[in-house]
Design a protein that fits this description.
The structure is a single chain. Helix content is 41%, strand content 14%. Strand 5, helix 7 and strand 6 form a beta-alpha-beta unit. Helix 1 packs across helix 3.
Length: 300
């Protein structure tokens, strides 16, 4: 059983280590051994934008720290978590030509394109953001609704964009976190055949630290499947073990890093999920839609 992870900050981690610590072997020394010891065979590897920086330079640095062998060893979709540092709509095509096939418009902030969960709740997608979405849609890029406020979420849903996902979040009905989705949002995602990637961020699962476990995470999976069926659900783990300075102990108590995702599959089996449905949620729902976005299939 293999898993494709809809959200990993690996590119940002490589960028930070190379720029702030002068460390170029981060992927080889840290990420590769972990992934090889896990069920995760690839994912959307994102360059996260929590603040302002030169996006061209950051992309160059991150990609230079990712060995070419990684593209053949793992199924990699290159992505952006937030586009606050994209200086113009036209620039997205340049990054597309470098291999990027995914982007969310914001992190939590409001920017020239859209509004994140920490922005004005009455502000949504901007005119510039609509132009950007049109360009992304023209290119066939994956549009990620994670981190948007509700108005931006629905604004984008209503544009008619193809290739929509919500890469990492859970159910607000089970945990009232601002980054989680309401039942109505989950159903709206289903209406555009989008994928919901469920996350292992502990405080998205429950506010009670002692209950931030696989068992309670699977409650979100059960609820998502109840709402929209198996075919529109996936995993977007958002592991933060490599961001210990900023986000210590942020994932589940029993799935602290990617090596332990087999415990999720074990619990799914215990709850009665069939092998076929585990495979759909684990990777096939993504592959059936976006196999062509995987970097190695196009570049190697």
């Amino acid at each position: 059983m293999k898993i494709f992870d809809l959200h990993s900050d690996i590119l940002y981690d490589l960028y930070v280590h190379k720029t702030k610590k002068g460390y170029s072997n981060r992927f080889i020394d840290y990420h590769w051994p972990q992934l090889n010891s896990s069920l995760v065979e690839g994912g959307i590897w994102a360059l996260y934008s929590p603040d302002d920086f030169d996006l061209d330079k950051a992309v160059q640095i991150a990609l230079s720290a990712l060995p070419n062998d990684a593209y053949s060893a793992f199924k990699v979709v290159l992505g952006f978590e937030g586009l606050r540092n994209l200086t113009s709509v036209d620039d997205i095509e340049r990054f597309y030509n470098l291999g990027f096939r995914h982007a969310s418009l914001t992190w939590n902030e409001e920017n020239r394109y859209a509004t994140g969960v920490k922005g004005d709740p009455n502000r949504g997608l901007t005119a510039e953001g609509k132009k950007l979405l049109n360009k992304m849609d023209e290119l066939g890029m994956i549009v990620d609704l994670a981190h948007l406020n509700e108005k931006s979420f629905y604004d984008i849903i209503n544009t008619g964009c193809r290739n929509i996902i919500f890469s990492h979040g859970n159910l607000k009905s089970l945990c009232n976190h601002p980054r989680n989705l309401t039942d109505d949002q989950v159903k709206a995602l289903k209406q555009v055949d989008g994928l919901l990637g469920l996350t292992l961020a502990g405080n998205f699962v429950t506010k009670k630290k002692e209950e931030q476990t696989v068992d309670h995470f699977l409650d979100h999976l059960d609820r998502a499947v109840e709402l929209i069926g198996v075919e529109n659900v996936a995993f977007g783990f958002d592991f933060m073990d490599y961001f210990t300075e900023d986000f210590p102990d942020s994932n589940l108590r029993d799935v602290t890093d990617v090596r332990y995702v087999h415990l999720i599959v074990k619990e799914m089996r215990r709850r009665g999920y069939s092998t076929d449905n585990i495979a759909k949620i684990g990777c096939n729902n993504f592959y059936s839609r976006y196999q062509s976005k995987i970097y190695r299939s196009e570049k190697i």
